[in-house]
Design goal:
- The structure holds two protein chains of two kinds.
- By secondary structure, chain A is an alpha/beta fold.
- Chain A is built from eleven helices and nine strands.
- Chain A folds into two domains: 135 residues, Aspartate/ornithine carbamoyltransferase (Rossmann fold, 3-Layer(aba) Sandwich), CATH 3.40.50.1370; 147 residues, 3-Layer(aba) Sandwich (Rossmann fold).
- In chain A, helix 1 packs across helix 5.
- By secondary structure, chain B is an alpha/beta fold.
- In chain B, helix 2 runs parallel beside helix 3 and helix 7 packs parallel to helix 10.
- The relative contact order of chain B is 0.16.
- The chains are: A alpha/beta, B alpha/beta.
- Chains A and B meet through helix 4 of A and helix 5 of B.
């Protein structure tokens, strides 16, 4: 059964979001995906709605994807970037948002380095809040677009084996993927160096590997996470070179996967570090399709949340 | 019986003084600011016919205990008078039933010299609680050079601590213990290995994994505690472990005590009440505290440590913070919560009503135990001692309200919580300094 509405007026994460709600978002995204592929890529759905894109962290894909999603739905959007703003003058997040909201904003898309900051916003704004990535916590629209991409290829998520590789400890993409994929009935494994597997990660209900070849055995989907140079500096890795040797996604590992396997990466890629160009650009790679789907998913989320009003400060 | 104009009779209450092993209904007679007598059995009211009615406090159904002592508070003066002053902090203390508080030295400037100790003591003359100073171990609490500990003690410091920071250098801690031994004062350890806890904003657990927040592992505390136990054992010095928060710490202290090491410890109400699971429910920055809220297993171990005497004292770690500093993203907020006005209610609600401690054991941990550890006067109702007395209505229900705090800061995660047990009167040197509505 498909529900026709989302329970919350915000999208703060995928933890606690039901199977019916995820299905609703993905189904809605499919219809918007058709619009993106038309010559005239615009519908009047959100005419008169104003969306604030509040980006406290750098972003290419997510920011442009949200902005285009808003434009294709005929919403008005304003963009905030931390650099060049009054944040450098010491203005707090709360003051910044309350001031911008006074200009009559309906929805806020927030990217922030602090986990929980989207929830923090819901305590004092009237707008619908969409999490575009908070710290190492969640990145729900990324996981939704990953699931849409997988579903398009296999026609289902149930029963598929998905392996998430890399910096599990710091990755919000991994967390949102775990919540979403498990809710949708997929079997999930994580794989990375033990220094980048967070404490009690097994409580997520996923299989855990520190040997990439073992993790890949019998998997359908491989989602490769970006590894950052800072992890080496923080003493979590001896070197990126060793990381590549142990956890790099290379062609010679592909035979362990199920036939009709899929290679994914949320970007931005470090070619030659966590994934070789050969694998990233192979026929089984859907990395660019993920990006296109991202726009459709964000259109769906904006559409489904717009106009939803409830009391401020509700439990999200 | 006649009493003079300054005298008070506390009539009909149940008097509990763990130091004297006393626990029955009695009348307490106060004269000239001192405890004149404790009369039992209680007399009929007419016995005091010649006493003005406003000099008699009817304590029927209430507990009459030695004025409570909080051995771990932050009064923020000098430096952050916008968050708390010695005067307002002591108003909060009085409202919480405390007649004595010990203030930590992490002010601005740090209490690491005689002049600053004297400043705090002089400011405390106007306050409605006794204020005892805990001075810094090292200059500016930077962990590099010893402060002039002899001078600090001469000026009135009752203990030393670099609270807020762990004295990471073990050689310096060894020297500090040796040196402090000359003055017979304890060193209060903020046990937290700063390498293991770097950047952390909560406990490291499934909760930090789930929320993507940087966690400090319980071993960061336990390694620090174990080091200081070994140093105290080696030197023969006195170490007091502040704000015990993990099961491993409780176990380490328990075994050290069994081995005769001179070690004592305290726990806070939040560490015997709250777990790290609270954080993800609302990202309330008032739940950001150091040491962090731990797991259910740790909370249970802290309670067990209070029950078996491993943990000697209950202290609030009252840490006021300005609203603007807490009204931010979770990981940007400074750690700390206020506690002076909620400690007694949490002790009753979480420890006594749940059957872990009786009143005498609970009061002991807030009176004579901290008094003995720090060599303070008070903590008892012994005849002739200063009339510092707290009267408690043990069954009164009340709700913690933001606008009722006497503290200048309001950063409490307990706002809205119903507690049982409330202070009726707080009496300092024979003077009623707080009376409930």
């Amino acid at each position: 059964m498909t529900s026709s509405t989302l329970q919350s007026r915000h999208l703060l994460g995928l933890e606690g979001v039901t199977r019916e709600e995820i299905k609703l978002i993905l189904d809605t995204a499919e219809t918007f995906r058709e619009i993106i592929d038309r010559p005239i890529k615009k519908v009047p759905t959100l005419r008169g709605i104003t969306v604030l894109n509040l980006f406290y962290e750098p972003s290419t894909r997510t920011r442009i994807s949200f902005e285009l999603a808003e434009k294709r739905l005929s919403a008005d959007s304003v963009n905030f970037a931390k650099t060049g703003s009054s944040v450098s003058k010491g203005e707090t997040l709360k003051d910044t948002v309350r001031n911008i909201e006074s200009l009559k904003i309906d929805m806020i898309v927030i990217r922030h380095s602090s986990s929980g900051s989207p929830y923090f916003l819901t305590q004092f704004v009237d707008s619908n809040v969409i999490n575009a990535g908070d710290g190492s916590h969640e990145h729900p629209t990324q996981a939704l677009l990953d699931m849409l991409t997988i579903r398009q290829k296999y026609g289902k998520l149930d029963g598929l084996r998905v392996v998430l590789i890399g910096d599990v400890k710091h990755s919000r993409v991994v967390r949102s993927n775990i919540w979403g994929l498990k809710t949708m009935g997929a079997s999930v494994a994580v794989c990375g160096p033990s220094t980048l597997l967070p404490y009690e990660v097994e409580k997520f209900g996923v299989d855990i590997f520190t040997d990439l070849d073992e993790a890949l055995d019998g998997a359908d989907v491989v989602n490769v996470m970006r590894i950052q140079l800072e992890r080496q500096q923080a003493g979590l890795l001896p070197s990126l070179r060793e990381y590549t040797n142990l956890f790099g996604m290379t062609r010679d590992r592909l035979h362990r996967l199920n036939k009709n396997y899929t290679i994914m990466h949320p970007g931005p890629m470090n070619r030659g570090v966590e994934i070789t160009p050969e694998v990233a650009d192979s026929e089984s790679s859907v990395i660019l399709n993920q990006v296109t789907n991202g726009q459709a998913v964000r259109m769906a989320v904006l559409y489904l949340l717009s106009g939803k009003k409830e009391e401020r400060g509700e439990e999200a | 019986m006649t009493v003079n104009g300054n005298d008070i009779i506390i009539a009909g209450g149940r008097v509990i003084d763990p130091a004297l092993g006393f626990g029955k209904e009695a009348d307490v007679i106060i004269r000239n600011g001192k405890i004149e007598n404790i009369i039992t059995p209680i007399k009929a009211k007419r016995t005091y016919e010649d006493v003005a009615p406003d000099k008699i406090i009817d304590a029927t159904g209430n507990l009459v205990v030695p004025g409570l002592i909080d051995m771990h508070v932050h009064l923020r003066e000098p430096g952050r008078e916008d968050e708390e002053t010695i005067v307002t902090g002591c108003q909060a203390a009085a409202a919480g039933g405390f007649t004595s508080v010990c203030c930590m030295p992490n002010t601005d400037p740090v209490i690491d010299n005689q002049e600053t100790v004297k400043f705090v003591i002089s400011r405390a003359q106007e306050a409605i609680a006794n204020v005892y100073v805990i001075a810094a171990i090292t200059k500016k609490s930077e962990g590099k050079e010893l402060a002039e500990i002899g001078d600090l003690v001469k000026a009135g410091a009752v203990a030393i601590s670099d609270d807020g920071h762990f004295l990471q250098n073990p050689e310096l801690m060894r020297r500090a213990l040796e040196y402090a031994g000359m003055f017979d004062i304890p060193i209060i350890t903020h046990a937290e290995d700063s390498f293991l806890s770097a950047g952390a904003v909560m406990n490291e657990s499934y909760q930090s994994t789930r929320l993507g927040l940087k966690g400090s592992p319980s071993v960061a505390e336990e390694i620090a505690v174990l080091r200081d136990i070994k140093l105290a054992e080696f030197i023969g010095g006195r170490v007091h472990i502040a704000h015990v928060s993990t099961a491993g710490t409780v176990a380490a202290i328990r075994s050290a005590k069994a081995n005769g090491v001179k070690i004592t410890a305290e726990a806070t109400p939040h560490h015997f009440t709250l777990t790290d699971e609270e954080i993800g429910k609302r990202f309330d920055t008032n739940l950001r505290v150091n040491p962090p809220l731990r797991t259910r297993k740790d909370v249970e171990a802290v309670i067990a440590g209070l029950v078996d005497g491993t943990i000697d004292c209950i202290a609030s770690d009252h840490a006021p913070h300005a609203e603007e500093e807490k009204d931010v993203e979770f990981d940007l907020a400074p750690p700390g919560m206020i506690g002076l006005e909620t400690t007694l209610g949490l002790v009753k609600t979480q420890l006594i009503d749940k059957g872990y401690l009786n009143w005498a054991d609970a009061i002991r941990k807030m009176t004579i135990n901290p008094a003995r550890i720090l060599g303070l006067p008070g903590g008892t109702l012994e005849i002739g001692s200063a009339a510092d007395i707290t009267i408690i209505d043990p069954e009164r229900k009340w709700t913690v309200e933001r606008n009722k705090f006497r503290s200048k800061s309001k950063n409490s995660p307990f706002i809205g919580r119903e507690l049982i047990g409330q202070v009726g009167h707080t009496i300092l040197g024979g003077r009623v300094v707080y009376k409930s509505d």
